[in-house]
């Protein structure tokens, strides 16, 4: 067949063009992909006001065969029709697409991620994915009411009721994620996050001040009563003061970073390292307290302590202060520093209450109960903080996220944009206290580059505005039959 001129090619109908075959990839391991729909998003009628805008942005892959000497010809893809058959028409379509993107045609791009408004793709309904339209009503219908939960608990047992209650929570999280990704909502979320962070900083500062007062009160009670159990609680309060200072310094250092600094991804791991250092100090202190308590128990010349009413009042005041701090930090428990302080204050309440009881028993019942209380407190402190240290070490290593969160992330990607055909892979793992997320999505091969960029960037921002997620990486592909990518070989 002879070569055709660009004028001859331009007279052909676009519908006669066949879609190009994308280059195959190595398919060693077939990857399971989630697909929201097999049908494509409906295009607007040719006579609709947005049809020209839709076609201007329906640019597909341009292919040229150098061997045959054929001119530039754009071909159709799975969801985007052939628009122009000459380089001149392709340039005109590209110019129109750029005008739409810049806002000169009245289409205002998104202020946050520069997405093109949904009007350029037809009606506003086209921005809702088929997966979202099909799954959301089913999810809402699957939720179980409180009355049904009580009935299930009575008839089938509390374990079955707990399962349905957990399912209700998972459905609520999935539905909430999709309702949060608008410009106004993102601005509101950022402001709320700043306010919550100020509350966390306030909780850390208040904890430091209260711990100073608690240490002074318990030091007076321990010295005045000569009680080994109260001395153990005082020493534990002193270590709490040190932990509050460490967390405060780590929190301040973690925010002092930008992309041009020595640590461009931030220094939020300092909080995790600070907790590990503090746990080691607490373990060392607990061992020393164990030795002292065992020596007091083995001593034959024991005598009751000198606990007075004023000493007991000091310990009770410390208990009340710790209970108040515990409930305040409980409201901020989704933040790492506040969560650590919440656990710390909870342990203090139990330790101080138990220490006061054993000190009273050592005076009025048997003198050996006082050092026994000190021994048990030391064991409790050692076990609690060694467990906390191991948990923080796993965060540094990079333990995976909870499977429940992976389900929420997968649903959020699947229903994010109608042009996302499949969700190939979702991985979430810890890097310190924050989570890193990697997601692979599949889009039509003919999708223009700027649309791919805007969809991927908006999905990235959607994830990074979720609590606990520090960074997200979105990888876009045109098929899901290749072997898993970005996998390091493990010897």
Automatic annotation (TrEMBL):
The chain crosses the membrane at residues 203-223, 229-252, 273-297, 309-328, 349-366. It is found in: Membrane. Residues 205-394 form the Cation efflux protein transmembrane domain. Keywords: Membrane, Transmembrane, Transmembrane helix, Transport. One of its GO terms (biological process) is inorganic ion homeostasis. Residues 1-76 are annotated as: Disordered. GO terms for molecular function: monoatomic cation transmembrane transporter activity. GO terms for cellular component: membrane. Residues 1-10, 29-40 have a biased composition (Polar residues). It is a multi-pass membrane protein. InterPro entries: Cation_efflux, Cation_efflux_CTD_sf, Cation_efflux_TM, Cation_efflux_TMD_sf, CDF_Transporter. It holds the Pfam family Cation_efflux. It comes from the Eukaryota. This is Cation efflux protein transmembrane domain-containing protein. It comes from Coemansia guatemalensis.
